[in-house]
Amino acid sequence: xxxxxxxxxxxxxxxxxxxxxxxxxxxxxxxxxxxxxxxxxxxxxxxxxxxxxxxxxxxxxxxxxxxxxxxxxxxxxxxxxxxxxxxxxxxxxxxxxxxxxxxxxxxxxxxxxxxxxxxxxxxxxxxxxxxxxxxxxxxxxxxxxxxxxxxxxxxxxxxxxxxxxxxxxxxxxxxxxxxxxxxxxxxxxxxxxxxxxx
Length: 198
Prior knowledge:
It is a multi-pass membrane protein. By secondary structure, the protein is an all-alpha fold. The protein has helices spanning 30-63, 71-93, 108-141, 161-197. Helix content is 65%, strand content 0%.
């Protein structure tokens, strides 16, 4: 004989709303945020590739006494690209480090307004750094006479990795500016929707 469920027919407590997804880009980042989140896999593969390149270098250097001239700079470049992209990746996942002493005490519409204000402040900071990076790119890509010449490392291999990295940093910062604009707009929309529903 089965016992009746005492909770059957009783009103259910509302499910707790999940403000942010546990994994992946937060909803306020929109389509760009989802694209940035998925692209992160490319840079994760780059870190794995750099580890394999270093392993190959150890075997060639100490096993065959035949080191390469490209392994060290390639691994630095791949890891640097991943670290630069990591800032943008943390933005779309809302996983950057922050002091939450006041932030955690605020809820509801006020929190969304605060998120919009934080996004706007971050937007101006990212725009300032993008402007500074643009100056670096111009020096790394153009000679004083105006002809195109990518800055190189100056080593025996001499790849143009420094110029490529500066260009990539500039592009990532520009994407960050656009992403913060999208986030600020979406946070404000969420706050206004809450206000209209209250």
